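Input.
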Amino acid sequence: MRLRAFGERERIPVVTLVPYLQGYADAEKAFLHGFANTGYGVGHWNDLGHRLAGERIAAALCASMARMAMVED
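Output.
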C-alpha cells in the first residue's frame, strides 16, 4: 500500500503483483518461489514466478501504452 500511495503521489505507475500471483498459486496449487535444490515455497521467485510476473507487467505496460496512444489521437 505504501508503494501504491507513493506512485500515486509522484504520478508513477505501479503494477501490484501480489494478488495476481497469490491467486494463481492458490488456483493452480503452484509454487512461484523456490527450487528443487532449496525447497519450494521459500526464497526467490522461480522460473514460473518470473514468467507470470513478467507477463503481468508486460500486459500493464501494453495497456498503458494503448491508453497513451488513444490520448494522442
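DSSP finds three helices and two strands in the chain.
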